[in-house]
Structures
1.
Amino acid sequence: MILTTLNKYFAVFVGLWIVTLGSALQVDAVTLSADQATPIGSGDTNKPGFSVRVSQIDVPGAKGLVGLIDRAEQQLAGIIATNSVDFSGTTNGVFISSGTINWNQEVGPGGSGLEIGNFTTVSDPSRPDQPIPGIPGIGPDTFANTDNIAAELITYVEFKTAGTYSMGINSDEGFKLTATDQPPTQTGALIVNGGSAAGSYYAVSGGSDTGGFSTPINGPIAGKLVYAQAAEGCAPFSNAAQIAGNVALIDRGTCTYTEKVQNALNAGAIAAIIVNNADPDSADGKYPIQMVGTPANLPAIMISKPDGAKLKTALATETVNVTLTAENEARLGDFNGERTSSDTIITLDVPQAGVYPFRLVWFEDTGAANLEWFTVQEDGTKILLNDRDNPAALKAFRARNGSPIQRPRLSILRNVNGSLTISWDHTGKVQSTAQLKISGTAWTDLPNGGTSPITVTATGSAQFYRLLSQ
Ligand SMILES: [Ca+2]
Ligand SMILES: [Ca+2]
Ligand SMILES: [Ca+2]
């Protein structure tokens, strides 16, 4: 039940189940939330621009990384490989970009100088391409110093008025834009929980949501890891009884991914992890690839051969509990794949004037690499974000003063005696009703409804509660 006209409220249904719907008021991914805004003028004028983290992995193209957002997040989280970026000029590993974002690897050291995108030396007005911070990397393989890049740009953008804005990203390859200043809690990595192999491992989902063949991973999937017998999983597992209810570990090779995953499904597995069979020095390198094939109805990921070897060593002597994670946070826009320099235009509904957080993740695999971040005016004119020489540009800041007004969070627990304990973390007043109506719902203040927590006795077949912020 969602009270879409009552933006200040959270509605909670209480019946046979308790379902909190606090996040459902933000289901429209292209609408910014007013509760994330700080007032006009709150951008720190001493800190214009963008805070930038960059990672570059020094492996040549054929051995490189997949062109997917999950990879960029795992790379930025530091779990794939050593970061070869040139950190000269950084503070705590962060580059400061006080101007605009008009990046191009070719105008960095050693590049061809060829400019690309909407904004170049010859565009009107002239906006010369800029080097990518920290690129080229300083790894030993000079042919790979401008490939396998991932970057995170965090900024706070001031919107002078409420309304609809067009925000554009021109990129080679892809990107993800979110309305936050924090990285996601899940990156798509495989997590080993405890034991000798504890840690996070680079995983590439085979999910159909990223061009693969298996069930998308929509949330954490936790279970005990069991190595399939036979290891390549090309026939019904001889240890199906041990696999049932657990996560199957299967080697790549001999048969299709679909056959392996279908055999895992038939054995009752809750997910499958395919271990790559390519050695680090092979032509394809060691990194996991994006698995494709005929659809199979089970979540599946691939990990590298060296990482798989670690898990097998641990499995030989101990119980290994794993969690498959999902990088599926709500996003304002994305391009989750490979492309040459191209635009994606995102329509943003800004509910009230103010300064809003943004996090842009960009990634590049091989060949050319560029990124432009801009807005589009009604007449089609594109203006770089934070172009201080253009009065029509939106201003961006690396910091802002004050904190956004947070919406109150309401939680309800059913106690063993059947009563309900209602608590919240912000000034507010709890009201209840036995019946929701399209309009004219009769809400009643609860006794002591202004001080958290309260305990109430639930009566009737259903009862609805809301928190009215004050
Ligand atoms: Ca450009
Ligand atoms: Ca490149
Ligand atoms: Ca490229």
2.
Amino acid sequence: MSTLALRALSKRPATSLRPLQALISQRGVSGTRLNNKPSLSHQTDTSMSSVLPPPPPPPKMSFQDIFAASQGEHQGVWKNLWDKGTYHYWDRGQASPSLVDFLRDHPDLFQPSKTPLTALVPGCGRGHDVNLFADLGMQAYGLELASSATDIAREFSETIPPPPAPGSRSYITGDFFSNEWLNRLDTKQFDLVYDYTFMVALDPAKGLREQWAERVAGLIKPGGILICLEFPLYKAYDLPGPPWAIRSETYMGLLESVGFERVHHEKPRRYLPAGKDTDMISAWRRK
Ligand SMILES: C[S@@+](CC[C@H](N)C(=O)[O-])C[C@H]1O[C@@H](n2cnc3c(N)ncnc32)[C@H](O)[C@@H]1O
């Protein structure tokens, strides 16, 4: 990865957000016609509607309400959101400028290598960060739970220029905690793993943060790097997720215990709006 490549990349225009897909609520059809004549109930409905005001629209559920209503079936919720194309809740249409700056500022993070570096982005969404790593000449893999998500990421990648050689981008469907997707890849461990809004999207009450740390440690080569864009550091612990509140000390507690050493921890120079002035970015070397 050269400094020039990073500079050129930071000047690329940010890709714009696709128009949001409207949520269409499915309604049952009342007043079914028989022999093309309005039914009695239809006539009744019509006459009543001139007397009564229309019923209020159902209250809109917040993102967090949708997860709370699922009674812990979060993977099903993610899949459903992707199947409906409602990724606007989290998608920001571009790789994080904090990450772009961080990679440019720390070219020493990676040793020169004869083979392309491999990068993994778990819960990659539409793949903006995967595409960034590929543009830097890495073999970049994005992992997503639903095939509808990887289809959307692949489709999006076809709208942007291909990465320069030897960079490549692949979008894999699978559960981060399962080996099924890993068994399909030639690469079993990566030089780099990047986490942004993935670990904090896993329910901490189920012990998934500790499982995430163990899993990440297994997926990174000895000497390899984990980069975390730490978010949401501002959020109160009693507020519902995802994303669930976190602090820098939490990353430290989770990652030191599975063999990582923190080698950088800094305030980004540029932010995405969601974490403006509060995000931190950290890099961890696997011992
Ligand atoms: C908040 S979104 C963030 C997506 C992406 N990092 C971004 O910033 O646009 C979290 C993503 O993690 C994915 N996800 C959740 N649990 C997962 C799992 N066990 N394995 C793989 N992906 C998962 C969801 O489908 C969702 O797209």
